[in-house]
Predict the 3D structure of the following.
Amino acid sequence: MKIQKYISAVLVVCVLLTSCKTESKKTDAPKVELAANTQKVSLNISGMTCEIGCAKTIQSKLSKKAGVLEAKVVFKDSIANIEYDANKTSKKDLIAFVDGIADGGLYKASECAKKAHICKENCKKECDTKSKKTCSTECKKECCIKETEKKA
């Protein structure tokens, strides 16, 4: 009779020890993430005085902002080219963010007119290659003024 008690006590202990294992239950609901609504915007930024202190600082802070996929600030043209997820941020948010850098009083951002921006890029390429034939008159003035200032 004692042997039966010992065997049953050992069995109860074994059952308790094996049943007390804690397993992590996977109750995490699957995360539903919207597909990125990638958009691009170019911002004119006034108030930049140097390439490393201003342009790189703005670029660095923009790159870290939620929703920004890529940011490139060109000091020479005072332009920030930003690729962002429209589901997470907007043009207005980006402009306000740039305006708020350095305690909000140093930089002023505004949306770049797309045609003017493309013209500037094309004109820059044409000025670099010294073939200004296809550049519009207005754009020629902008890039040629910069080129003559460099030469002087």
Summary: Confidence is low (pLDDT under 50) at residues 115-119, 128-134, 140-152. The radius of gyration is 31 Å. The chain is about 50% helix and 20% strand.
